[in-house]
Design brief:
about 140 residues, 5 strands, Muramoyl-pentapeptide Carboxypeptidase, domain 2, alpha+beta
Length: about 140
């Protein structure tokens, strides 16, 4: 099944992130496997614009792992629809957050259901949370 996901990543020209980075080496339940595609497409475009490495710190979380890290009970990490990511120069996180916010408001990503399809969280000087919650019919947009 991961081979099918890899083929989709190739199709969408996801060139800066490997399957191992995206899955973090975890076994993803088959019914959740495709949920990450819209989110990785957004992250790839951000990476292309930023032109510096972006590091995925969190993607899929099993229910037990989510509980261990004190994640929210309805976290989109449980649905393999979210990333927490960072960059080397933490001062760049603010501008990356603002870029994602602008793109979401402008409906930059036509493959998403509507303008305001994303959840974007800014954890100052640490990381950004990114999800495409509207693709799973979750309330959107969300900012924190």
């Amino acid at each position: 099944m991961l081979e099918n996901l890899k083929n989709k990543l190739d199709y969408y020209k996801i060139t800066n992130f490997t399957i191992d980075e995206i899955t973090m080496g975890r076994i993803i339940p088959e019914q959740l496997l495709w949920n990450i595609l819209p989110t990785i497409r957004v992250l790839q475009e951000l990476r292309s614009k930023y032109d510096k490495p972006i590091f995925i710190e969190s993607s899929y979380r099993s229910p037990s792992y989510n509980k261990l890290v004190k994640g929210k009970k309805k976290s989109l990490h449980l649905d393999f629809n979210a990333f927490d990511f960072t960059v080397k120069d933490k001062e760049d996180l603010t501008s990356l957050f603002l870029q994602l916010d602008i793109w979401d408001k402008e409906y930059h990503f036509q493959f998403l259901p509507k303008a305001g399809s994303m959840g974007i969280g800014f954890y100052e000087n640490r990381f950004i949370h990114l999800d495409t919650r509207a693709t799973l019919k979750r309330i959107s947009p969300a900012r924190w």
